[in-house]
Amino acid sequence: MNLMATITECENPPQPRAPKRVYTKNIVCLANSYKRGGRCIAGKEILDGGFGAWIRPASDRPNQELSRPECSLWGFRRPELLDIVSVPLLKPVPTATRLRTI
Asked: CB within 10 Å: which end of the chain, N or C, has fewer?
């Protein structure tokens, strides 16, 4: 055991993490495909006056694929094309070619 690390930890206890803030966007599903062991769901944001930005929810896994539970509606089915889906998101993650949202 490293006593110095233990003393330092006692003097400076880890601070509790702030809860992750989740916001929701409503999209019309325009893509639902297989992606390296998971799924890729994407669509256009629904706004009062029409459609907004392209939204592709992504996970924090290396290939950013969504797991079955992450992309299931009501816990049992995947969204189909043209379904209206409320997507919980944490933050936008822009790339050179797309805006991905985690």
From this structure: N
